[in-house]
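User: I'm preparing a small set of examples for a lab meeting where we compare how different chains pack in three dimensions. I only have the primary sequence for this one, and I'd like the structure in token form so I can line it up with the others. Please keep the answer compact; I'll paste it straight into my notes.
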Amino acid sequence: MIKVWGRPTSIHTQRVLWALTAADLPYELILASATMGPDGHVSKGGAPYGIVDTPAYRAMNPNGTVPTIDDDGFILWESNAILTWVALKYAPQMSDDAQQMARAVQWMGWTNSRLEPLLHTLVMELVRLAAPERSPAKVEQARVAMIEALSGLEARLTRDPYVAGDRFTIGDIPAGAAVHRWMVFNLQRPEMPNIAAWQGRLAERKGFHLHVASREFHLSG
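Assistant: Understood. Below is the structure token output for the 221-residue chain.
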């Protein structure tokens, strides 16, 4: 059984749990975090789940971040690397086409570089920081930048139903979770019908339903 260190409210952990579900793999989730715990974010006085600062964990992941997996002794961290491992080893339906796999990795990298910094700002400013520490100006800046970034995804989805082509791949997981979180925030945005239809297709998947869909996974502070 694959061991996963992370937390359900971590969007990067959500990626891994969705991928494991898509590959129909059993796993054990071990709650771990430097910033979140059972009572919320540390900025509000809550104690973190911890583990990530222990010598044993740092021996696996020197960054002290989540998620990390242990797959029968094979240790791996960074969610996109974990998704790639799962696809290559356990899910040929998501990795047997080299061109689609390359496009999937492309969109995973795009999600990390274009969407994740903006989402981090939004989740901190809208959910996790104490009210006196929040900045409406930062929220507005991130909102505008998010709309600009998503225009490229909207254009991509005019050609294919999924980010890498005609079928679901690991590329849809990071982008799909990120866009769902953006929609949960319910900030003013233009209609993007292709993204909305793609989100509808993703919502039918078990992994999305179990690990991404709940508003609590995104609004828990």
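A couple of notes for your slides: The radius of gyration is 17 Å. The chain has two domains: 2-93, 96-213.

User: Perfect, thanks.
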